[in-house]
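Hi R.,

Here's the chain you asked about this morning:
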Amino acid sequence: MRTLSIIGLETAQRPPLGASSIRQLARLGTVVRWPGLIFAAILSLAVTPKSSLGLGAVLVWVAVYNGWGMIAIARADDSQILRIGRALTLIDTVSYFLVLFVFGGVGGSTSIYAAYILLIVWLVAYDGAEGAILSVAIFVVGIIALHAALRASFGLEFPTKDVLLWSLIMVVAGAILAAYDRIVVGGVLPSTVPSAAAAIASNGGHAGTTVPLTSAVPAVRLSRREQEVLKLVADGCSNSMIASRLHLSENTIKTYVENLLSRLNARNRAEAVAAASRQNLI
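And the predicted structure, written out as tokens:
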């Protein structure tokens, strides 16, 4: 996705998570959904749903796609895991509004909307600032559609103030989470090693002093699998050789290599190895 580059905010992007981190995040999502189902069932004891049959259908729907997700995550290779994790979270956003509809807006209480922030967290983790933009856009459209449907189906009043208030809250939450994600995951914290220009300036404008770089903090964080691929690339192995050694498909290795080139801002393998060496990644 290139939304940010279109509006001139490329600096807001950060390197994508490694495949192993995405897999763990997707697995965590499948674990969290089960307590969510239990909560929805318990909530039906306190707030009578508009349709018990509808609630049962939604709960079965969530259980089915969560079960599918557990199987798909276990079987997916590293090139597929992001699509699966993202798809499951997007389905969650639809299911979230279906639950709210079945409960008729949860008895007029709007505090349940805060639960949507968890979905923003997941999409930000997958796609950074673009995930925040997407999740907030889904919420705004979803909450308007929800109350329009409640008004058409049950004659409930459209709460304009609540819709505006919670839309604003989600915009702020998305912006905060995207900024936090950029700092922590993107590794944009200031390096402890001065740049060459700063070193020259602090040396009275003389460039004769050598600045040690051995303590430099890596600007890119790699997963264990990415480090393995990078090391084999540095050893001069081809994609097929790397695939054979790591017991992965050649297409998966190709994806890893392409991601490494992008994250290291390199045009070819040699530049990637040189950049990784400068950042103490190999």
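The two ends are 29 Å apart (CA to CA).

Let me know if you need anything else.
M.
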